[in-house]
Amino acid sequence: MTEGKQSCRPDTLETTSGPTPCSFTVTRRDFLRTNAGAVAAGMMTGSGVATLVEPEAEAASQAQTPVSSPMAMRKVTLDIDDRKHDVTVDVRESLWETMNYKLGLSSSNLGCDRAQCGACTVLVDGRPVNGCTLLSARNGRGQKIVTVAGISSGPGVRGLHPVQRAFWLEGGFQCGICTRGFVMSTYALLERNNNPSREEIKDALSGNICRCGEYAKIITTVEKAAAEMRGEAVAYTAPLVGLEEAEDTAAPIGDTASMGFEFVTAMGTIEQFDELALELQQIPGIVRVSGTERTITVEWDTARLDEARVRQALTEAGYPVRP
Ligand code: FES
Ligand code: FES
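YS: structure for the whole thing
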């Protein structure tokens, strides 16, 4: 067979010299010299069939090409925890990346980033999936995305979903990196079957890995969460002492406001964020804090605080935010 010889439609390809206008010859050297990737991209995107291009012309065209091609960007509306987020995403961007880097939602953890550990598990239309390998561009068509932040019913211990409460009070974790993923896989299981056998629990959690090896306690946790969801009385290994009473005597929360801010200087590690969140939660009127190394979302009681006071608190804590 003649090397690189192909037949073609004369109206879709430029031709090089050849016996007929409907054929052209590409040697392997030509192919590599003229950027095999461009040929493949043309085929994949249906943007036309690549033609042989002189190196100088190719360099000039690359110099004018923006780094992010509009072809690679999509506008989507992500429905996360019952809130709609309009965002422009790269078609190669994972849901975890969009949530953390663009939306400031840090309610799922990243472990392996390779669809192997389940730490990033979220639910899409009720099914547990790995947010690290799910493309955001394909999840803006009305799919319901749910994270651990979306399953509690209110503030405080009493607002926690039984699955969240069970993981906490039964100690179904050690370092906690895997916990949000286990919570979401457990939630998905118990929403469809609140009386699973041990085998069914193991099967439902088979996509989640705990590097601390807390499997025995995790399975007990799931069993206790299931019992609570069936309405049975449950005795946890480490029940809360005093905290629920403290919630009862705490000042009631009135209307709240929530706002996202971007730090002037990004934090070095997410552990710094945890320290900042703890500090802010000591301030009367701060209701909830979430965020990443780059952004923070603060919810506050409008009867006690306003935006200026929240900004001031962030500055005093050493993390000023952009106007
Ligand atoms: S971080 Fe997604 S599966 Fe490990
Ligand atoms: S608690 Fe550490 S990885 Fe599971």
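YS: worth flagging: Confidence is low (pLDDT under 50) at residues 1-55.
IM: good catch. Also Residues 215-229 form the longest helix (15 residues).
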